[in-house]
Structure formats: structure tokens, C-alpha cells
């Protein structure tokens, strides 16, 4: 299967600064991959290389098999930049209409209405961008990225300006995109969000991949905690598979069991360990 | 190239909805009213004055006033061209306006062409309208009409489009503010060179004329403006012609046969360099 996004050995140097140094990753159709890393780790540079906004000093990137930046790659791509703005004098509907024309989408008013509905802006169709809150503009940005139903989405901090309800809307949207076999690369600082929705996580630090895998594979076991009539009992070296045996043993000892919790490190802990002191 | 008209319409809408456009319209109205007042007063006073010199007073007054109006028109057109192009690449990229457009299946060349056409669609009609209005005011005030009307107007419009092309080129490398300053410095340098040329002509200084000539080749909008000034009184002869030619708004330097060719080539080179630089630019 042709990957939705393929990056091989991508490197980018800005003068003396090595922003990206040999990064490789893949996003398959229908897969949500989270991109994590501290400020300056190279996340936005990687996303911009994939979009064709900047040229890699080394390596290659492909969108659905087409070289990044080529017309075919851009036709298959939806992109939400970390810092973006739409002209303040456009209404939400006009922004989407412009992007429909540029993307060659024949979706018309139906598509625009559906996308605005999807991001919770159905009632803001005629509202001018400069009258919108930052959160509304960000939701409009997500709708814009979805114009033309691209098979690949690159979202750079899509929920940074959203309130909790807005974030939940975006999470539901991402789940829907997965069902529609759209490949998504999600660049975010919100670890909890990544943990909740992403199939895989790639952690960058100082321009390199320092950890990658499924969130559950990245986490380390931290024992089993059992709530008994005598209080909490912690078995720090026990694994998940050993939990039934531990419960059985406690019951044999005459303890009442009220709850069992298998403990593991959180994505946040794994992330902090992976990036070490790189918090720039 | 499918995207060129889409981007051009986008640029046109942006230009018409920007506050600066309304400011320019207001400035234009003020300019035209002042010009109308000035032209009426000048023709009246010159008609009453007795100086004993062998000049056609109507010709001298009309040619000089209309030359002044052409300078004003060029200046206002340059302001408009600069403001419509100064932030097209780096300025818009810094504000985050450019990236959502560039990632669409639109070539960077199409984007530049569209932005240039959008600016041209505002600037060229604007310059032609103000130029025509000034000519009509001059005729109404003193019964004077330029010796050539169409070509000088087209030259003024072409000069303003050249400034727009230079603004587009500067926008690839400079921030909007720096580019705006650079455009006006280039514009000012061109005008100063033109004045130097006229002084050189009056003093018969070969050095000054050479400096002016070379600057005109480097900045052909100035050469177009000078040639346009020359053409509006091209048929004036004798002392009247000399007085107009040596005045502050008389065209001392005719452009010559190669000017149109060089202007077209200059356009092409400027736009090609802009495209080459934009294609390599990281956003």
C-alpha cells in the first residue's frame, strides 16, 4: 500500500542550525500519527517539508507517492499551519469558496455547509473572519484543510486556541477521519490529546526521532495496585498478567478486594524521558 | 495557470477592501480639487500678466501644470502600487496569510502572476483615470490639451506597473515595512535622477546627463515618465518649448526608440527574477 505520507532521512539546515537531522516516518491511510517534541525540535520544519513549503537539505518526502511540493502531492494534501490567518474581510463561506477553487473541488455549497457543520461553525457562515474569536478561526482553518476531501492531512497544533469543548469536537473529527481512511499527521503539544486519539506517536528532539511507537507500547509497566479492606497494596514489579494471581492470593489470605489497577508510565513521563533535558 | 484568475480576483478584492485604497481615493479627490483650483488660478493670473517675453502663455502654463499633474499621478500610483505589493510574499508569509494558499495545487508562478495582475487591475485604471481627469481639468481651466495624449498616459501606467513589479520582487526578500521604504527610496532616486538630467541639460553638463541617463536605464519607470513629459509638449517650439523643457515638469529627455523594448524586457527580467527567488524561498 502506498503510504499517505512518507518521509525518508529528511534533514534541514538553517545556516548553522541543524533543524532536522535524518528523520524518517510513515503515515498509512487511515492512520493518525502524533508528532511530539519540545519547541525547536523540528516538528513544524518536518510538516513544512511534507507540505512543500520548505525544501529539505537532504532526504525526501512523498504524499501518496508523489514528491512533496509537486502539484499531485499538493492536490492530495490538506494543511493547517501552526500560524495562519485568513483575510479579515472574508466571511467563513468565502474562505472555503476560495479554497475550493484553488483545490479544484466541485463540492460547492453543500461541501462548504457540511464542513462548517463539522467544525461547529454552521451558524457563522456569513461571519467575517475579523469578527471571529481565535478558536472560531482555528476551526475554520480545520474546515479549510478538509476542502476537497484530501487523503492526507497535516495538522500543526490544530487545537492550540480551542477550549475543551472545541478540542472534543476536533477529537471526534479525527476519529471520523480515521474511519474515512484519511492519513493524519498531528503535531501537538497536548500529550493527553495525542494519547487519546493517535495510533502511533513519533517523538522528536533536536531534529532527531528519539522514540516512536504505539502509545501503549511506549509506556513502561509500573506494577499492580490492589485496593483491599486493609488499604492499598502495591506490587511494583508485577505485570498485568500477574494481576489475577495476586488477587487470588489475597483472597486466599482472607482479604476483601475492592479494586485492581494495572499501573504504567504515562505518555507524558515517556515523553519527558525521551527528550531528556531538551525543553527549549 | 487555472489559478491565475482566481488569485487575481482574490488580490483585486483585497486591494479594494483595504483601507489604504480608500485613503488613496480620498487623497486623489483632494489632489484633483487642488489641481482644479490651481489650474484655474494659474491660467487666470498668467493671462492677466504682462511679461513681454516671446512665449505662448497658454502653452507654457498648460504644459507646466499638466506636467505637475503627471508627477502627482505618478506619485499616487506609486503609493498604490507599493501598498498593493509590498507584503505579497514575505509580509504575507510572516502574517500566515500565504501558507494556506501556497500548499494548494497552485504553482508559485501562478500565485505571483495572479497577485501582479490583481495589483495591475487596480493601478493601471487608476492612473489612466487620474491622468484623464487632469487633462480634462486643464482643458476646462485654460483650453489647453497635450500634444500627445494616449502614449503619455500609457507610459505613466506602465511606469506604475513597473513599480508594482519592483515591489513584488522586494517582497520576496524584505519584510513589508522594509520593502515599502525600499520602494519609495527607489522611486525617489529615479525622480532625483530625472531632475539631475534636466539640470544637466540646462547647464550643458555631460556628467549630470550621463548619471541621469544611466539611472533611467536602471529604473525605466523614470525614463517612461520623462518621455511622457516630453510627449505632452512635443510640438512646442522656440522659446516656449525651451521654457517648458527646462521647467521642473518639462521633459528634457526623450526616451528614444529603444525605451519601449527596454521597458518590456525590464518587466520580463524583474518578474523572472522574482519568480526564481520565490520558487527557492522557504516559507
Structure, explained:
The complex is a heterodimer of chains A (280) and B (283). Chain A has helices spanning 43-51, 71-75, 92-103, 108-118, 134-145, 164-179, 191-197, 215-218, 243-252, 267-275, and strands at residues 5-14, 17-27, 32-36, 58-63, 66-67, 77-80, 152-156, 183-187, 200-205, 208-213, 221-228, 231-235, 257-264. The model of chain A has no long low-confidence stretch (mean pLDDT 89). Chain A has ten helices and 13 strands. In chain A, α3 packs across α4 and α4 (108-118) crosses α5 (134-145). In chain A, the strands form three sheets. A six-stranded mixed sheet of chain A has the order 6-7-8-3-9-10, with helices on both faces. Chain A has two domains: 5-216, 3-Layer(aba) Sandwich (Rossmann fold); 221-264. Chain A is 34% helix and 29% strand. Chain A is of the alpha/beta class and 280 residues long. The longest helix of chain A is centred in the middle third of the chain and has 16 residues, at 164-179. By secondary structure, chain B is an all-alpha fold. Chain B has one domain (3-279). Helices cover 80% and strands 0% of the residues of chain B. Chain B has twelve helices and no strands. Chain B has helices spanning 3-17, 19-48, 57-85, 90-95, 99-102, 108-142, 150-173, 176-203, 206-218, 220-232, 238-246, 259-279. Chain B is elongated and about 70 Å long. Chains A and B meet through α2 and α3 of A and α1 and α5 of B.
Amino acid at each position: 500500500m502506498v503510504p499517505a505520507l512518507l518521509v525518508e532521512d529528511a534533514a534541514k539546515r538553517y545556516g548553522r542550525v541543524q533543524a532536522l537531522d535524518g528523520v524518517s516516518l510513515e503515515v498509512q491511510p487511515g492512520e493518525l500519527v502524533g508528532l511530539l517534541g519540545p519547541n525547536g525540535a523540528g516538528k513544524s520544519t518536518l510538516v513544512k517539508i511534507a507540505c512543500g513549503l520548505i525544501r529539505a537539505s537532504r532526504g525526501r518526502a512523498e504524499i501518496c507517492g508523489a514528491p512533496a511540493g509537486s502539484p499531485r502531492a499538493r492536490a492530495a494534501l490538506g494543511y493547517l499551519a501552526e500560524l495562519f490567518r485568513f483575510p479579515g474581510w472574508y466571511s467563513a463561506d468565502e474562505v472555503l469558496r476560495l479554497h475550493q477553487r484553488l483545490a479544484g473541488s466541485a463540492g460547492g455549497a453543500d461541501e462548504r455547509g457540511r464542513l462548517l457543520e463539522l467544525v461547529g461553525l454552521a451558524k457563522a457562515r456569513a461571519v467575517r473572519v475579523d469578527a471571529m474569536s481565535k478558536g472560531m478561526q482555528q476551526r475554520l482553518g480545520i474546515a479549510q484543510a478538509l476542502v476537497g476531501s484530501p487523503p492526507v492531512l497535516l495538522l500543526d497544533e490544530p487545537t492550540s486556541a480551542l477550549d475543551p469543548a472545541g478540542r472534543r469536537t476536533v477529537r471526534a473529527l479525527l476519529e471520523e477521519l480515521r474511519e474515512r481512511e484519511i492519513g493524519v499527521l498531528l503535531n501537538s503539544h497536548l500529550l493527553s490529546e495525542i494519547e487519546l486519539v493517535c495510533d502511533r506517536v513519533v517523538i522528536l528532539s533536536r531534529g532527531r526521532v528519539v522514540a516512536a511507537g504505539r502509545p501503549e507500547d511506549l509506556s513502561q509497566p509500573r506494577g499492580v495496585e490492589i485496593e483491599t479492606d486493609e488499604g492499598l497494596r502495591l506490587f511494583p514489579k508485577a505485570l498485568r498478567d500477574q494481576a489475577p494471581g495476586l488477587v487470588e492470593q489475597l483472597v486466599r489470605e482472607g482479604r476483601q478486594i475492592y479494586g485492581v489497577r494495572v499501573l504504567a508510565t504515562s505518555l507524558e513521563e515517556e515523553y519527558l524521558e525521551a527528550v531528556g533535558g531538551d525543553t527549549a | 495557470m487555472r489559478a491565475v484568475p482566481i488569485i487575481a480576483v482574490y488580490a483585486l478584492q483585497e486591494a479594494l477592501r483595504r483601507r489604504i485604497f480608500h485613503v488613496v481615493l480620498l487623497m486623489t479627490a483632494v489632489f484633483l480639487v487642488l489641481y482644479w483650483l490651481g489650474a484655474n488660478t494659474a491660467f487666470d493670473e498668467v493671462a492677466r500678466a504682462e511679461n513681454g517675453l516671446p512665449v505662448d502663455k497658454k502653452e507654457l502654463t498648460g504644459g507646466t501644470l499638466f506636467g505637475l499633474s503627471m508627477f502627482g499621478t505618478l506619485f499616487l500610483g506609486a503609493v498604490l502600487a507599493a501598498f498593493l505589493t509590498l507584503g505579497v510574499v514575505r509580509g504575507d508569509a510572516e502574517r500566515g496569510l500565504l501558507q494556506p494558499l501556497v500548499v494548494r495545487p497552485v504553482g508559485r508562478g501562478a500565485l505571483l502572476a495572479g497577485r501582479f495582475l490583481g495589483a495591475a487591475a487596480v493601478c493601471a485604471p487608476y492612473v489612466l483615470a487620474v491622468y484623464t481627469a487632469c487633462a480634462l481639468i486643464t482643458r476646462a481651466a485654460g483650453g489647453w490639451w497635450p500634444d500627445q495624449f494616449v502614449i503619455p498616459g500609457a507610459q505613466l501606467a506602465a511606469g506604475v506597473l513597473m513599480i508594482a513589479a519592483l515591489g513584488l520582487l522586494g517582497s520576496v526578500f524584505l519584510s513589508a515595512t522594509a520593502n515599502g521604504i525600499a520602494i519609495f527610496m527607489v522611486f525617489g532616486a529615479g525622480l532625483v535622477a530625472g531632475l539631475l538630467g534636466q539640470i544637466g541639460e540646462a547647464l550643458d553638463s555631460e556628467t549630470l546627463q550621463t548619471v541621469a541617463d544611466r539611472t533611467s536605464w536602471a529604473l525605466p519607470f523614470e525614463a517612461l515618465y520623462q518621455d511622457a513629459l516630453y510627449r505632452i509638449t512635443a510640438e512646442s517650439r522656440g522659446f516656449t518649448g525651451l521654457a517648458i523643457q527646462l521647467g521642473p515638469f518639462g521633459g528634457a529627455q526623450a526616451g528614444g526608440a529603444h525605451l519601449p523594448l527596454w521597458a518590456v524586457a525590464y518587466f520580463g527580467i524583474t518578474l523572472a527574477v522574482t519568480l526564481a527567488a520565490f520558487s527557492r524561498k522557504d516559507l
